[in-house]
Amino acid sequence: MAYRIVHLGVGGRGRWPVKIATERDDIESVALVDVNEENLRNAMAVSGLPESACFTSLGSALSSVETDFVVVITPPKMHADQCLEVIRAGRHVLVEKPFTRSLSSAKQVVAEAEKYGVKIGVSQNKKYKGSTMTLGRLVREEVYGRASFGMFSELSWRKKGVHHSGEDEHAYVWERGIHDFDSMRYIFSGHPKRVWAQSFNPPWSPYKGGAGVHGWAEFQSGVTCGYLHCFESHKKQSICRIDCERGTLAIEGGKLTLTHRERNEVEEASPRRMSGLHDGHHGPVGAIPRQ
Question: Which residues of the chain have pLDDT under 50?
Fold first, then answer.
C-alpha cells in the first residue's frame, strides 16, 4: 500500500519530493500546496495531479484529501506552526531542515507529536549520504584501528547572496552547520563530552552575523574533531578526514579514501563495504566505485 503525501511547498527545494514520488511505488502524491500559482502549475506537470488537487493553504488540503503524511518544505520561520497544524490533524510530518528556529519550538513540536501519536522526521540529513555512512561504519568497526582525531571543513561562497539566515546572529550554525555536527555524532557514535565554538563574520560578509564558525568537539570515545565552516570564503574547499591508527580516512571528490602511514599512497577504502547503502534523498548511491 502506498503512503499518501501532501506536499506543502512545491517550488525551489520543494520540487525534489514531487519528482521522487513519481519514481516510487510506496508513496503517492495526493495534493500540492503553495501560495505561488507558477509553482503549482510546474508541480502539476511533474506529478500528473489535476487542478482539483492544488491548494493555497494547508488547512484546505488537510480537510479535502485523505493523507498519511505531509512533506513540509517552506521558509524555516514557518516550520514550527505548520508542523503543529499537521500534527494536530493527526498526520505524520517530514520537514526539511532546519527543524524549527528555536529549541523551545522544537521541543513543543516533539511533545505534540507524542501527544497525538504521530511521527515527525527531519530530511536533508548529510549523514545518510553513502560516503558518510561508510566512513561511520569503518570508524565504529575500527577497520583501520581506533580513530584519534578528525577535521571537518566546508568553505564556500554563495553567488546568489544570503539565504534564510541573512538577519541572524549565528547564520552558519543553524542553517548548514547542523549537517556536519550531526554527521560527527553519527560517525563517532554519540554526544560529545566537551564542545567549544565561536561564530565569526568576515568584514565583506552580507550576513548580519555568524557567516562562519570555528569549533572543536571531544567525544566520549576520546576522539577530538575540529570544525571550520564559512559561507563567505573566496575559495571553495571541503575537508572531511579522520586519522586512525593505520591511516587517514578522507572523503575526497565523493570517494572515501585511505592514506597509509607507512607509504605515501592513497587508495579507495573497502569498496566491498558499500553494499546496502542509500543516499538520504535519491535512493541507492555508489560513493565508492566497485573495483
Answer: 271-291
Residue 171 and residue 161: Cα distance in Å, rounded? Answer: 13
**Contacts with 270 (C-beta within 8 Å, 6 or more apart), sequence order:** 134, 138, 143, 288
In terms of Cα–Cα distance, which of 85, 96, 148 is closest to 123?
96
Contact 25, 52 (CB under 8 A): no
Q: Which CATH superfamily is domain 127-284 in?
A: Dihydrodipicolinate Reductase; domain 2 (3.30.360.10)
| C-alpha cell read off for 50 | 489535476
Domain 3-123 has CATH 2.40.70.10: no
Whole-number pLDDT of residue 265:
67
Of 258, 288, 244, the closest CA to residue 150 belongs to 244
Residue spans in the chain of domains classed CATH 3.40.50.720:
3-123
Among the listed residues 228, 145, 226, the one whose alpha carbon sits nearest the alpha carbon of residue 192: 226
Say if strands 232-244 and 147-157 run parallel, antiparallel, or are unpaired. Answer: antiparallel
